[in-house]
Every structure is written in structure tokens, then in C-alpha cells.
What does this fold into?
Amino acid sequence: MHCCVGLILVMACLLPGEANAAVILGEANVGWGAAAQQTALPASTQPLPGVAEAVNKGFDLLSRRDAAGAEAAFRQAIDLQPELEMAHRGLGMALRARGQEEAALRELQTATRLDPSDADAHYELAVTALTLSQQSAASPRPREGSDYRALAAGEYRKLAALRPQDASIRQVLAELDLEGGRKEDALADVQEAVRVAPDDPATHVALGRVYFAEAEEDKAAAEYEKALKLNPKEGEAYLALGQMRFFERRYAQAAQNFQQAIQVSPNLAPAYAGMAQILVQQGRSAEARNMLEKVVALDPQDWQSQYQLAVLLNAAGEVGNATELLEKVTRLHPDFLPAREQLGMGLLRRGHLKQAGAMADALIAEQPQAAEGHRLRALMLRKQHDLEGALAEAAMALGPEPDSASMLALQSISLWELKRKKDSLAAFRAAAKLEPKVATAEVFCRLVVCDAGDISTVSDFLRRNRWVLAPPPEP
It folds into this structure.
């Protein structure tokens, strides 16, 4: 799969919110929410005298965002009538609003058991399961034994059977199937969504994403264009086009698509993230930073953008701000070595060589073949003027990542200082192919973490060897 839109963001605009899904009961009869009004209330769930008032109160408090009061009202109803499905559903919604997702899940499972035909209960259970799935994935110690994403997919499958004309449900199912590697199911789901709602731009975007995941870029582009014909302000279509063009390395077109997405959907965080990637490639760090700051403000859960922003902050010497972001990322994703490497880079920039060395040792101990620990140790050894040691570690880092501009730059200057000029110039050429601005002192020093004592050495090295980057004379 090339790319995927965040499911929680998708669902937020696809299905009714808590207030719309609420069941409002009268004293003499039962009035259902919009989706449930067409179905008669099962006799086994008829509220007993006095229970309807408590349930009504609970949903009213939920609509006014008083989750604690709603919880108390629903618990009162359950005490009076334990088998009342809508009371368990309401309690599950209240518990989720209070951040108690696991308890909410149990109540919603009870609700769907008591009334398997209640589409609202299946929807609330699916949303809760997805929330728990995201929390589990982000936790340093994911909870074992519960496949929340599979549970969510199963609930959406049931919901699709209960609401066959709701194309948005099929769109979410397609996303879940893609993430689970079930491409045929995803295609079937989204094709059904297009059949049900052929004039809905979102269904064509969803179908395009499935085609893109199957490496059928031409079909994907056609679906995105159909979406834009239906709605020229469909930001998700421009975003999907931009992501596909970026994947195809058609960067100018990707940038145009991302800018169009931002213009029509100013709060679409992934569009800013896409633009940031292009700006970084172009060496426009200040503009990329502005884009990433926008992403982090719009989507505080986007830890990848937080990491990318921290890299730019580190490079700009704003180590304190970078460290704050990196510590947040590493708490949630301790196995993401690049963030820990960047924390070590911050230590190097502040002259804390012992702490940086300890971090490098820890990274190498955890994953000896990974580049991050060796790259950090190479830079640390250079700071300690151990050029041979730095070269050895740089070679270890270049094994898994031969296109590391920082290690090639470090090799070039260390080899030069060791009077191995031929090898030094070869490394310098290789670094310049990856980073054309490596011939500037600012970029070179950023790559090898220079301090004040290195500046004269770097300047002399670049002054003597700029000719290496000149094009060969014409014959």
C-alpha cells in the first residue's frame, strides 16, 4: 500500500456524531435517532416505568458534553433494568467520552449482544475499537491478546449489512481491508460504495486509493479526476493526487496538487506534510519548517511530522525545542531509532559527548546492523579527534545506508586530514551528488556536527576542493 488516510479522520466526516446517534425516549413511547427510527423497538428492550427518564437524561447530558453526569444517569437506568440495550450503549458512549475506552468497549459489546440489529451500537463499538487500536500501536508496551482493528473491521462489516445504502461505511471498510492486506475485499467494498453513491466525490477518492495501492496509477488518477469533476473543491482528491505524484517522483506536479489541497481545505494536515517533504528535498528548510509546524498544530498525533520538524530544529541549532519534540516521539515509539539518534545529535551539539556515546552504545546494542548507532558514534569519535575510529564507524553506517550524506562528508574530511586525498575526494564527490550544497560550509558543518574549533578546518578543506564539484571540461 502506497499511502493511506488516517481512519479516525475519515470516520469523523463519514458517520453521525454522538449527539446525532442519541436515542431520545419519551415517557409514553420510544423515539429513535435518525438511523433507528425505521426499526421497531424489540419487546425485550422496552424500558420499564421510570427508566426512560434516566436514559433520556443521559443522552441529553451527552449532547451537552457532561459525560460524568451522563454516566451516572445510564448507570441508574442499568441498575433498574440491566437488559436495556440503549442504556449500555449510552454508558459506553459516556465512558469513551471520559477516556475510559476499555470499559466503554465492554459496555458496547453488551449493547450489541442485547440488540444485534442496532446499527448505532455497532458504529460506536467500531469507533471505540479503532481508538483502542491506535492507542495500543502508540504505546511503548502494546497490550497483547486483543486485536482491536480486527474487531473494528468486523463491526463495520455488520454495520454495512445493516445500512447497505451508506457508502461511507464501505469506504472505511476499504481502508481497514487495505491496512490488513485484503486488497480484493477493499476493492469490492469501495466498488459497492461507488455503485451506491456514484455522485459522491469521496467514493471515487476511496476507489482511487485502492487502485493506487494495487499499483494501478492510471486508474487511480482517473478516479481522483472524477472526484474533482463532481466537486472542484474536494481537498482529499488533490491530496491523493499529490501523494501519488510524489511517489512517482513528479515533484513539481505533486507540489501543485498539495497547494491546491491546502487552498480548498486549509485544515488538511497531510497536504502540509506533503509540501514539507518537497521543500526539504529542495533545501528550503525554513519553508519546510513552517509547513511542519502547521501539521503539528492541526494534527498533534502526527508523530512522523513531529520527528521531521525536530530534525530541522536540530539542524538550525534549536536543540532545546528539538529535544522536547524528540522526547515525546521516543516515549510513544521507543523502537524508532532515528528519533533517538537525533536526541544524540542534540547532545553532540551541546558538547555532551559522554551522554551521546552512551546513547550510541545503546542503539548499537539493540540493533547492531542499523545505521543510527554507528552514525552517532562516528560523529562522537570525530569530536574526540579519533579519526580512524570515526572512519570505521562511518563505514559501518554506510553498509545499510550507503546514501548517508553525513557519513560521506565525515569520511571526506577525515580522510583528507589523514592525508588520504584520493579517497577523500571520491567521498566528497559522492556526498555532493546526494547533497549539492555540501560545498558550502553551513551545510557541510551541519552534516558533520561542527563546533567552533572545526570551522577553519572545514573552510580550508572546502576552499581547496571546490573544483572537485565543477563539471568536466568539454572535449
